[in-house]
Specification:
Layout lengths: L5 E9 L2 E10 L4 E6 L8 H11 L3 E11 L1 H6 L1 E3 L1 H17 L8 H5 L5 E3 L6 H52 L2 H15 L9 H13 L3 H19 L5 H21 L3 H21 L4
Parallel strand pairs: 3-4
Antiparallel strand pairs: 1-2, 2-4, 5-6
Helix pairs in contact: 1-5, 5-8, 5-10, 6-7, 8-9, 9-10
């Protein structure tokens, strides 16, 4: 089992340029991929999405690709527009004269003006930059899935503990359910005696009433299905493929069985066990919401 929450980062270098890729993921019912690439490499978005969909099956994955050039490369990439700087200087000097103020113009003032110093962007060929980006992306996704697997193991441990509690509750409910018809027979006889209408134990009307009550309160089918759901849940947990959506669906069936038990049981102790089991199921649902 893997969680849908994780983070991974990878780097790769080519020709003095370092490419970094960061991948982060959060909960989503389906797979959503958001890619942030340098504008000139936007055509690589489809390739990035394909790589992510191969490694991740569920969740929202944000991918950020950055180009991190070295200091030397950055300094060489700077361009100074001397003509534009000179135009700014003359314009600022003329304005100072017109306003009759001292023209104290520094180099810092000039270099801060738009367009005077720019960073040259070398043209990037996608076929050349894709290999290092792919390498960095693969490393980032590997780290992302490693973190998701670690969190998934924690989720699984909590879920299995709660499943064991539910199994124990089912056993208690099954044992108590077997005594409910006999208890109802005693209650009916007591009420009849209190009303001055005693009946023999083999009276047909009493036997029929107990039989009808036993049929209405029979929860053996629900108990059997609930026990089957526990086994199926564990099978999904042990499976090698992502099963978050399957577990989510199975939980709905789980709740349906316990709701039926609660409405049919007509016994305070069983009702208490049903409420406790549903509380455990709700906690499992919260964990499953984050499972891939």
């Amino acid at each position: 089992m893997k969680s849908m929450t994780g983070f991974g980062r990878g780097e790769a270098q080519r020709s003095g340029v370092t490419w970094s890729v960061e991948c982060s993921s959060v909960n989503r019912k389906q797979l959503e991929v958001a890619v942030n690439l340098p504008r000139e490499l936007s055509e690589l978005e489809s390739a990035v999405r394909t790589e992510v969909s191969t490694a991740v099956s569920r969740g929202r994955v944000n991918v950020a690709v950055r180009r991190e050039s070295g200091a030397a490369a950055s300094s060489e990439a700077l361009r100074v527009d001397q003509v534009l700087a000179q135009q700014y200087f003359h314009a600022m000097h003329s304005l100072a004269l017109k306003l009759d103020i001292s023209p104290e113009i520094s180099l810092t003032d000039i270099t801060r003006m738009p367009g005077v110093i720019t960073q040259a962007q070398a043209e990037l060929a996608t076929e050349e930059v894709w290999p290092p980006i792919q390498e960095a992306l693969t490393a980032a996704l590997k780290q992302l899935n490693s973190m998701r697997a670690t969190e998934g193991a924690s989720l699984r441990g909590d879920i299995e503990a709660r499943l064991a509690t539910i199994e124990s509750l089912l056993a208690s409910i099954r044992a108590k359910a077997a005594t409910v018809p006999e208890h109802q027979r005693k209650v009916l006889r007591q009420r009849l005696e209190e009303a001055g209408l005693p009946l023999p134990l083999d009276d047909e009307r009493l036997v029929k009433e107990i039989a009808l009550f036993a049929d209405r309160t029979d929860i053996s089918e629900e108990l059997t299905r609930a026990a089957s759901h526990v086994q199926q849940f564990r099978a999904y947990l042990d499976g090698a493929t992502p099963s978050g959506r399957s577990l989510d669906f199975l939980l709905q069936e789980f709740f349906r069985e316990f709701n039926t038990m609660g409405s049919k049981c007509n016994n305070a102790e069983i009702a208490h066990h049903v409420v406790t089991a549903k509380t455990e199921l709700e906690k499992i649902r919260e964990q499953v919401q984050n499972a891939e």
